[in-house]
Design brief:
Layout: E1 8-16, E2 22-30, E3 36-43, H1 52-64, E4 68-73, H2 92-105, E5 110-119, H3 121-132, E6 137-143, E7 150-151, E8 154-155, H4 160-171, H5 177-180, H6 184-194, H7 199-204, E9 217-222, H8 228-236, E10 244-249, H9 260-272, E11 284-287, E12 292-295, E13 303-309, E14 315-316, E15 326-328, H10 355-359, E16 362-365, E17 373-377, E18 380-382, E19 393-401, E20 407-416, E21 430-432, E22 436-440, E23 445-451, E24 467-469, E25 475-481, E26 487-488, E27 504-506, E28 515-520, E29 525-530, E30 536-539, E31 545-557, E32 560-576, E33 581-593, E34 597-608, E35 611-623
Parallel strand pairs: 3-4, 3-5, 5-6, 6-9, 9-10, 10-11
Antiparallel strand pairs: 1-2, 2-4, 7-8, 11-12, 12-26, 13-25, 14-16, 15-24, 16-23, 17-22, 18-21, 18-25, 19-20, 19-23, 27-30, 28-29, 29-31, 30-31, 31-32, 32-33, 33-34, 34-35
């Protein structure tokens, strides 16, 4: 254990809620009689296995620096009591979080001030809880707060059903008898009976607004994470009363270790009244490919919109100048080299050289850049489509093309064109590309590509005819950053964290590739299969043996959009050999589509010692338009 200002203690607790349900919690706190603030991480993860390694590194570090750090399993998850909330009771997580905050604030070892910490769905949940109890919650640190399950009006294929399968499997895991005793089986069977796959509710929900901050908030994400736009939106709404500071870096999904000292500065200032200078930090610090930039305020006056017309600075090769319309009709496997929708830092998550994708798209290229170009913010593409293209899917990518032809993805975006022909007086539709922070070297060209499909990120449009645009009335607006208007920010450094508990990993003897693509030429079919590198068997220090195996597969016929299919299989096994406890959970989600609906078939099977104790299937018909 590294040396910190405070010696720490650890204990497990049960937090009573007003309805009698008890939440399972783990508390690390400084060994002192003086009340201290609390840093609370509350999520649907399982603190005794799934998040145990990270919890044991980060929370003792916060405790060693003067904060009580509490990690709590949500209702119906891990070793907490109650049933997992359904769509009809989704606000239950927020209500429980509010009650949890009040309970912690009343502890004799707490000074009444709470800071919330969360990543992904828990990061968005922290913002919602803080809005309900701003008197007790004095600060939030949110990493990669969750985003929508639709993108530009199109339905996600790459993330939604995979997450739904994982969500169902994780919620179906039983409480651990080592921590809850003999009552684990009754709790498990009740939990299984209450489960519902969340996919249909996720996709039917209207697009949620970007999360807002109600208390001083520090937000972080990687530029390639889908939450980057939400982090920028938080920074844009910063006020003197509710300050927000944001950081966007070269990180995958999650809370980077390098960010923890910043989180500690934030908590020390707002929870302990220590003048750390945290509010004086710039509104946005971001990695731009070659340097860390500090911009204050955000949006920065040093970022200006530079417009590139699609018939001038950007031009499609081979397009005759007298042609008004450029037709975009892509093969259905366009998008196979998109990379992961949510990057977790695995090698196969990164989008590879985009030349194959460029060849399946219509490309508009610039001349070689005479000097470096810093991009910092959210590009926007204004399109003038053919009125007959209503309802079509438009996928746009912005790439940097090196002198040797290598095409590197910078950002991308999606738009579903209005179904009804627009009134001539209506403005042309605008496609918002994801935020980008990058420096394009001199000698490189900018390339904007348009395609009419982006599989397997998005479900293909039922009409394979694509769309047409008028380049003379279409333009790309880029956020160009003047380096002279910002200062260089100091790089982030990882703190010295405690060593994680010893975890023995047994990898499969025949490990599957993380991503493999097969082209069946005779069938004109493309298949992609993904298997995360996290698969394997882990033996925890307390004797728990945990095994995972996940495979996600996609298929589509080159010229047949309604042939698209997706499937995810997930198997989890938990064993305690010393107790004779052996649990296996299998979940599967299969999806196919027609012109108006997605058809989901979800299966759940739970076994104890090889015997099936629960099995259920769901057949759901989900409108593609979200109605």
């Amino acid at each position: 254990m590294p040396s910190y200002p405070h010696r720490t203690t650890r204990e497990d607790l049960r937090v009573p809620l007003p309805d009698g349900t008890e939440l399972y919690a783990r508390l690390w706190r400084p060994a002192t009689d003086t009340p201290v603030p609390v840093v609370l991480e509350y999520s649907t993860g399982r603190l005794t296995d799934w998040t145990a390694t990270e919890d044991a590194r980060r929370h003792p570090w916060f405790a060693g620096h003067g904060h009580a750090a509490v990690r709590v399993d949500a209702r119906g998850h891990g070793n907490s009591g109650g049933l997992p909330p359904t769509a009809a009771s989704a606000d239950r997580l927020v209500e429980d979080g509010v009650d949890l905050v009040h309970w912690l604030a009343d502890r004799p070892w707490c000074n009444g001030r709470i800071g919330l910490l969360g990543t992904g769905a828990a990061g968005a949940l922290a913002l919602r809880i803080a809005a309900r109890v701003p008197d007790a919650v004095r600060a939030v640190v949110t990493a990669c707060p969750d985003g929508p399950h639709r993108l530009g009006g199109a339905v996600l294929a790459a993330d939604a059903h995979t997450r739904s399968t994982a969500h169902l499997a994780d919620a179906a895991r039983p409480p651990d008898p080592l921590y809850v005793g003999d009552d684990w089986r009754a709790q498990w069977l009740a939990r299984l009976d209450a489960l519902e796959p969340p996919l249909a509710d996720w996709l039917a929900a209207p697009a949620a607004p970007a999360p807002a901050a109600a208390v001083p908030t520090l937000a972080v994400a990687g530029w390639s994470d889908p939450s980057a736009a939400a982090v920028l939106a938080l920074a844009e709404r910063s006020t003197a009363a509710v300050p927000v500071r944001a950081v966007l870096g070269p990180w995958p999904h999650g809370l980077p270790d390098e960010f923890l000292p910043e989180a500690l500065r934030w908590y020390d200032h707002w929870l302990r009244d220590v003048d750390t200078g945290a509010p004086a930090t710039p509104a946005l610090r971001s990695w731009l490919g070659t340097r860390w930039s500090a911009d204050d305020p955000w949006p920065s006056p040093g970022v200006r919109a530079v417009h590139y017309g699609l018939d001038g600075p950007l031009r499609a090769a081979g397009t005759a100048s007298e042609d008004r319309w450029v037709r975009v009709r892509s093969p259905q496997h366009t998008g196979l080299n998109a990379g992961a929708y949510v990057p977790h830092g695995r090698p196969a998550d990164r989008p590879p050289d985009q030349r194959e994708e460029d060849g399946r798209s219509v490309c508009f290229d610039s001349r070689p850049l005479p000097e470096p170009l810093e991009l910092h913010g959210s590009p926007a593409l204004t399109l003038h489509p053919d009125p007959l293209s209503g309802g079509a899917l438009v996928a746009a990518r912005l790439c940097a093309v090196a002198p040797d032809g290598t095409s590197t993805l910078l950002t991308r975006g999606v738009l579903t064109l209005p179904v009804d022909p627009a009134d001539p007086a209506d403005p042309d539709p605008v496609l918002a590309l994801a935020p980008v922070g990058a420096t394009v070297p001199p000698g490189h060209r900018l390339r904007l590509t348009l395609s009419s499909t982006y599989w397997p990120w998005l479900w293909p449009d039922a009409d394979p005819d694509g769309f047409a645009v008028d380049p003379s009335r279409s333009a790309l607006s880029l956020p160009v950053h003047d380096p002279a208007t910002s200062t260089d920010a100091a790089p982030f450094r990882s703190p010295t964290l405690p060593l994680p508990p010893p975890l023995h990993l047994t990898e499969p003897l025949t490990a599957r590739p993380e991503r493999v693509t097969v082209h069946d030429i005779g069938r004109r079919e493309w298949r992609t299969e993904l298997s995360p590198a996290t698969d394997g068997t882990r033996t925890h220090p307390d004797g728990l043996v945990r095994a995972e195996h996940t495979v996600t597969a996609y298929r589509v016929l080159t010229a047949t959009p309604l042939s698209a299919q997706a499937r995810t299989d997930r198997t989890l096994r938990l064993e305690r050999p010393a107790l004779g406890w052996d649990i296996t959970v299998h979940t599967r989600t299969e999806l196919r589509c027609d012109a108006t609906h997605l058809h989901a078939h979800t299966q759940l099977r739970a076994e104890e010692a090889g015997n099936v104790v629960f099995a259920k299937e769901w057949h759901q018909r989900i409108r593609r338009d979200g109605g």
